[in-house]
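W.,

You were right to be curious about this one. When I first looked at the sequence I had no strong expectations either way, so I just let the prediction run and decided to look at it fresh. Below is the sequence, 251 residues in total, followed by the output.
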Amino acid sequence: MTLHSHRLTDRDSPIADDDDEVRFCSACAFSAASMRAGYDKAALRDLHVLVEHVGPFRAGEHVFRAHDPFRAIFAVRGGTVKTVSVDADGNEQVLGFYIPGEVVGLNAIYPERYPCDAIALESSYFCRFSFPAISALATRMPGLQQQLFKLISKELGMATRLAGDHGAEERMAAFLIDLAERYATQGFPARRLHLAMSRNEIAAHLRLAPETVSRILGRFRETGLIALDVREVELRAPDQLNALARNVLGR
């Protein structure tokens, strides 16, 4: 069976880019929050001029590297990115995955160097914001400042979510539900996912063996929780997956 999933491209992404300071990147983590707060055209223009569009970064290319000086944060416009740390023995830990509308690099605010690598999983595009400049603007735009704090808090939450002693099926269900909800927030269909990441990368994120990830996905398919075609996933029973994920997601 072939699933027709939403493949995220710069052309069809809800992340708009129309060069209009009132409507630019309407789903961007910063501009969307600013518009909801009711800022006028002049205020949004101040935010718009901070944006530098960069990309494409091809699959496997670094957006930034661990220990690079921290100067900017990156809002994903299109594509998917993973953040990775490598321990002294060379083992890779995938810290997180970022999709359009999300911001990469906030965990570098202290100690002012990126603590990890950010690597494109597919052709990816970004809005790059100078962090000193956006921080200065946030002091004049409380709505923008609140959004910065919200994003930093979310980043901390992502870092601690998998620290508990959760079962493998719970972790996998939480991964799928969390990813689906994040896509839905950006205007994509909530039940159909394209997994830009490999099974090995999912395993490195969930702290599981790759064969365990493949086995659980197969079990989810056999029991009707998902439909699966290589990297295309349809959530067939989201309520059951939610129940499995509840402890991991803190619900």
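Here's what jumped out at me. The chain has eight helices and eleven strands. And, maybe more interesting for your project: The radius of gyration is 18 Å.

Coffee later to discuss?

I.
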